[in-house]
Amino acid sequence: MSLLFARDLAADIQAGRTTPRAVMEQVAAAIADREGEVHAFAALDLDAAFEATGLEGLAARPLAGLPVGIKDILDTRDLPTAYGSPIYAGHRPRTDAPAVGMVRRAGGIVAGKTVTTEFAFLQPSATRNPRRLTHTPGGSSAGSAAAVAAGMLPVALGTQTAGSVIRPAAFCGVTGYKPTFRLLPTLGMKTFSWHLDTVGLFAARVRDAAFAAAAISGRDLDIGATLAERPRLAIVRTARAGAASPEAHAALETAARAAEAMGARIFDLDLPEELEAADAAQPTIQDFEAALAFADELDFDRAHLSPLFAAHLDAARAIPPDTYDLARRTAKRARQKLGDLFGEVDALLTFSAPGPAPEGFATTGSAMFNRLWTLLGCPAINVAGLNAADGMPVGVQVVGRFGRDRQALAVGNLVETAISR
After folding, report:
1. Domain span at residue 131?
2. What is the arithmetic mean of pLDDT over 80-88?
3. CA-to-CA distance for 258 and 416, rounded, in angstroms?
4. What would the pLDDT profile of 213-254 be if each residue is shown by its tens digit?
5. DSSP bridge partners of 113
6. How many other C-beta atoms can be found within 10 angstroms of the C-beta atom of residue 274?
7. What is the predicted pLDDT for the residue at 1?
8. What number of other Cβ atoms are within 10 A of residue 287's Cβ?
């Protein structure tokens, strides 16, 4: 299984060592080889993608004609957008979501729509984990993580409302980057929770995700080989540490010691009670907003919802507005407290998931180690490179300060480099 390194491929295109068409041929060959067993794509149009490689001036744009996958929760004007639900089968939006338009204007070629779980919730999809086909790829950005892990794409967009970028990246052994809240626009995304939904990216390495984020957003995020210099890195296990497997604890310890050997200043940190309270508030905010966002589907298309999602929405409708408002106030206090905490540390190092990808397809895994950081809006990065004894990936998560994405990516690059050594 050969991963595609987005930053290197773009540099090769811009230097004339390869072409967008040659890269697309490589992608098409990988799709022909792996898609039949991985099922990462909800829609493909490789003929249109090949035609797009001939656009004049493509190689001079930031993404240089690289193929990009778009999670099928984001609208596309030239490919169907079904949001993982039979309710929207064959749906053709009139316009691209702004994030998709940003990909195209940066010189990315939309190769296909990647599978999302139903409305980016918990009902498992048909996608399989390329690292071991008998295991879940996670969710809800199952197809994006799997396509990158299978070498079928160098870059893919995903979304995270609780843990839908970091967790599948950890399960599939690739980089997942959830930027600071609203760094990439969520307009044109099927809304689940407007205070939480975040567009993120998947790529092979931290530097590839940073490169793609810079190219798409126009921000100074392309870190290249830059490593954070002697960062203050706090190990955060949270009150949920008992739910993490021995493999997850071992990965966290290994990553910390490796980063320390490369100059990071490592110490343990217990989260203040304000932050632990916010973790408990996250589901209230998410579910109250989901009950409003999916009111029409529940009222008029209930028969086409999974029983899991319909029952969840029924329960969510019972959340009182006062309880929701209290949860939002709890989140605000936590954000203020986290700002104080980041005066003492440069980044946090914590679990990406409770352990390796579960075997079977009854669940997409738990977001218990992701939802707090999504609620607080900070950048989060799954750093890959560690495996359990059976060879399945175990990720570790770097969390940065709100709006300091470049610093978080540089710390992630340090941890990734340290692990590889």
Report:
1. 6-217
2. 98
3. 9
4. 999 999 999 999 999 999 999 999 999 999 999 999 999 999
5. 43, 70
6. 18
7. 63
8. 20
Alpha helix positions (H), 262-404:
273-293, 295-300, 307-316, 321-341, 371-376
Element (H, E) at 380: strand 380-383
Residues 6+ apart with CB under 8 A from 295: none
Residues belonging to the active site: 71, 140, 164
Say if pTM beats, i.e. exceeds, 0.70: yes
> Which tokens go with 14?
């811009």
Q: How confident is the model at residue 41 (pLDDT cuts 50, 70, 90)?
A: very high
Do you know the residue count of the chain? Answer: 421
Work out how many domains the chain is built from and give that number. Answer: 1
Q: Could you tell me if residue 281 is inside a domain?
A: no
Q: Is 168 a member of any domain?
A: yes
Output the domain CATH number for residue 68: 3.90.1300.10
DSSP tag of 111: E
Overall average pLDDT of the 355-376 stretch: 98
Q: CA 138 to CA 115: how far, in whole Å?
A: 11
